[in-house]
Amino acid sequence: MRIIPVILSACLAGILCAGISCAAPIDSSQPVATVDTKFLTDFAVTRGFTLGRPTKPRFTPDSKSILFLRSEPRSVLLRLYEFDLATKTTRVLLTPEQILKGADEKLSPEEAARRERMRISTRGFSSFEISPDGSQVLVSLSGKLYVLSRKEGTFRQLATSAGTLLDPKFTPDGRSIAYVLDSDLYRFDLVSFKEQRVTTGGTEDISHAQAEFVAQEEMGRLSGYWWSPDAKQVAYQQTDARDVETWAPADPAKPEQLPYSQRYPRPGKHNVKVRLGVTSATGGETNWISWDHERYPYLATVKWEKSSPLTLLVQDRKQKEMVLLTADPETGKTRELLRETDSAWLNLDQDMPSWLPDGSGFLWTSEREGARQLELRDKSGSLVRVLVPGSFGYIPESDIPNRIDATGKQVYFRASTDPTQSQLYRIALSGGEPEALSTGFGLHSAVYSFDHTLAVEGMITPKALNRWAVRKMEGTVLGELPSVSEEPPFIPNTEFVQVGDYYCSIVRPTNFDPKQRYPVIDYVYGGPGAQQVTASMGSQLRAQWWADQGFIVVAIDGRGTPRRNRAWERAIKNSFGTIPLQDQVDALTALGKRYPELDLGRVGITGWSFGGYMSALAVLRRPDFFKAAVAGAPVVDWLDYDTHYTERYLGLPEENPLGYKESSLLTYADNLQRPLLLVHGTSDDNVFFLHTLKLTDQLFRAGKNYELLTLSGFTHMVYDPQIRERLEERLVRFFRENL
After folding, report:
1. In angstroms, what CA-CA distances link 383 with 361, 386, 388, 449?
2. How far is 109 from 163, CA to CA, in rounded Å?
3. Distance CA 413, CA 419 (A)
4. What number is the average pLDDT over the span 662-670?
5. Which of 453, 444, 384, 442 is nearest to 413 (CA)?
6. pTM of this prediction?
7. Domains (ranges, CATH) in the chain?
8. Binning pLDDT at 50, 70 and 90, where does residue 117 land?
9. Alpha-carbon distance 680 to 695, whole Å?
């Protein structure tokens, strides 16, 4: 729906433009300037030129090969490859085409939802598992499981029971494959080639071995079961969702389809009830682990690693306290290792605790001293030493295999005092100074071999997309995982600057004229957990295209965003509606003073999700500064978002009603004076379409003008090439008309 804007009188228009630089009125008799969409087409079809690049590299246990996934440059279908380190050659191990034989890939609603939580938009093999001895590889496709023999190059389908199959993985001994099937845990014996049920009685209301919604979406915990190191027992989560609201958003474009329902916990309302049990690998009686469930209802993390006890991290509802426990699988009794508290909230690090292979202690991260630090603790939980102090800029990350070198007694990690980049380091468990393993401005990451003699280093810079170099630990490059991707047609003209405490990026037009003043687009996120200003070419390609349409594109990471320190991130506690927006204004004002080419009389703002919220908030609360906004999938009323995220920052609604009111866009709907375009997928199951509907209803009742663009059938992620192209084109036209 497009709402026709009210034509202002000349007097009112003059008042609005007083003291600012106004765009000339549009002459409807003149053709509208064209939008160059050639780049958009290529950008959309190649997913930002990322298709065709290796992803998810993993060393085989013998450290002789690297397995990875890769698609063709204009295909989203991921195939499995192997890079041989001796010959430097790459071969195809398995393709979806070999399995499907011309049939279409089919995803269950549950698998589609899980991929949404994991932010996976590709098809084919979304992941793979290597057996402990390296001889076999497990993949799933269209709800079925396949095991590939690396030596013979042959694959077999596992004859699993019919139903919705999720989260498959090898048992630690490599003799079986475990998976969740219709809310219960199963294992498939690779010797007898038979399936065995491990748990019984699982239903949609009370499920077994599945991580609940907030665990997947907000905690970063995707699994709901954990095998003992000897594969004789398994710990699993039981989830009672009977008290949680059921939401079933329908797709208006497909009224013949029944809506997919899910349990969605909102702030102040019921969460699922979770408990952890341990049973035999063959099933049977369950021993339930005991802790104070009323005080600590969240099961945040579970670890059961080699030579380590069953370890769990539990968290209180307000997320101000969490306790690390070890559990006796036979009796269910727990023992406290350590306790963390924070007056605002505690961040989770799913890589922690990380137990040493000999079981003598574990790694832990904490912000109790004001910034994230890496600690070594003994097996009783006592602090041995701080390995990496908070001042070093330690970066927490999960899913990093082999980060601890037991032989060399070293730990590998990422860090940087500059939040726009990341570098690789290692440090001895005995302490000392960290040793740098990477150089060059950019984002560095790595995967390490089992014997810690090799690494696959990923590197992204402002001038190059990701490449994976294979090197020895002393630095000698042995090769590169081959890419078949297309390269972007240009290198973004990005300038990284710091004004006051704010890190910012500025992208100017390719044909930039320093004598001219340009309208400004503030490309914003502005909220917890994500950055916009990073040394990444990929994040700047779209900005450069926008700039070449006649704008200067600016991004700013204000308070509340990660990678700074505890005080910076927690400044937003109890309200989203003030500090994040004020930081955007203050940083833009400072940039305008330094760079006169930025016309601060013509500032537009756009973003998605929290960035969509920020964009709408900007024109509602600061129409004096922001002249137009495009808000993509905005959270409108935080009472309608999920518990674990919202309550972490805003607290419980009954204890902070003013904070929820101040943070709600509905509070300011009557103030709309500037052009606002709302964009939302009608099937969004993260930020539900309900949010935009509530805002448009309030705006309409207040007699305000707005534009609404619905993306029919799309969820929170919008990857369809044609829709992406048309969306970007629409946004540019909107800002051209209104700036």
Report:
1. 10, 8, 13, 29
2. 12
3. 15
4. 98
5. 444
6. 0.91
7. 30-46+487-738 (3.40.50.1820), 200-346 (2.140.10.30), 349-452 (2.120.10.30)
8. low
9. 12
